[in-house]
Amino acid sequence: MILEIAEIQIPPGQQAAFEAAIAHGIKTVIAQAQGFMSARVQHGLESPERYILQIEWASLEDHTVHFRGGPLFPAWRAIVGPFFAQPPRVEHFERII
User: Fold this and answer.
1) Which end of the chain, C or N, has fewer beta carbons within 10 A?
2) In the chain, where are the structural domains located?
């Protein structure tokens, strides 16, 4: 299992619309992706325009090759991309304990 963590910054005042969009995108697009296991979104308290998206993938390739290289990625970005104040910072983690 691989954990993708994406740090997302949105413009001020767009929280409600972004939260609706990301929930819709996860439910209708990401959930269809090969190797998708689960997703959750965290909202910053001190930085209300900052979000952390966590997605569990069966393998790194499920995210980097199959999802990003397939037709679902443009659909996902069409839903959430308009809210990005800057490109998200994305890293992958592997559980060791």
Assistant:
1) C
2) 12-52+70-87
Give the model confidence (pLDDT) of 58-91 as tens digits: 999 999 999 999 999 999 999 999 999 999 999 9
Distance CA 83, CA 22 (A): 10
CB 42 within 8 A of CB 3: no
Q: Are 90 and 4 in contact (CB under 8 A)?
A: yes
End-to-end CA separation in angstroms for the chain: 12
Any idea what the Cα angle at residue 11 is, between residues 23 and 90, rounded to 5°? 60
Distance of alpha carbon 54 from the chain centroid = 7
2-9 and 50-57 strand pairing: antiparallel
